[in-house]
Amino acid sequence: MNAPRLIVGLGNPTDQHAHDRHNAGFWFIDALLRHYPGQMRPDAKFLGDVGEVRIGTQVVRLLKPMTYMNRSGQSVGALARFYRLEPADILVAYDELDLMPGSARLKLGGSSTHNGLRDITAHLGTPRYWRLRLGIGHPRSLNLNKSVVDFVLGKPSQSDQQLIDQATDRSVDHLPILMRDGWEIATQQLHGADPAMQQAKAARKGSPEAKPTDSL
């Protein structure tokens, strides 16, 4: 499959939400722009902030929907229709409750309870677009006595923010691989660089089951 022609970062506008976990997709676009020359500008036609950057030999459009999270699909759908983009040309970066802070995974399609993704799926007419899942953890897994709504609309701890930032930067670092070598190789390398997966792999190697038994 081809490299993405559009990268979308999901979040909520206004300074009130700038530091919310729910804005991890916006943080990804910000990190990308720190690595590559470019800037975002408001575009009423697409209900969001738009821009473009060159990654390797390819120019990629960027989008931050300014519709608030639950209506992200209005913005993504408008831009996709205007530029005649196929869903598989689109990569959407967002906050993932099912991954711990520090993890980042690529995925094509699938269902989701994330309101931003659900609206994008409705407007594109298919879930077959790419996702960059940036782990923020779940209040239950982090032992926090909070509702999911309060959690995603809250600020991460300093240590969790550092882990999220590291995963975000690591994802940006893998974009040239994606543009040059495609989704499969980029996915393998990004997932292989995930600290959680590295720890699990090391644990498997060190387990008694993984060691050969002595001959009697």
TrEMBL record:
EC number, as in UniProt: 3.1.1.29
One GO MF annotation is: peptidyl-tRNA hydrolase activity
Q: Which UniProt keywords apply?
A: Cytoplasm, Hydrolase, RNA-binding, tRNA-binding
Q: Give the residues the record marks as binding tRNA.
A: H17, Y68, N70, N115
Positions of the record's site feature: Stabilizes the basic form of H active site to accept a proton? D95
Q: Does the keyword Aminoacyl-tRNA synthetase apply?
A: no
Q: Which PROSITE patterns match?
A: PEPT_TRNA_HYDROL_2 (PS01196)
The principal location of this protein is cytoplasm
Enzyme class (EC, first level): hydrolase
**Discriminates between blocked and unblocked aminoacyl-tRNA, annotated site positions:** N12
Protein's recorded name: Peptidyl-tRNA hydrolase
Species of origin reads Lautropia mirabilis ATCC 51599
- What would be the name of the gene that encodes this protein? pth
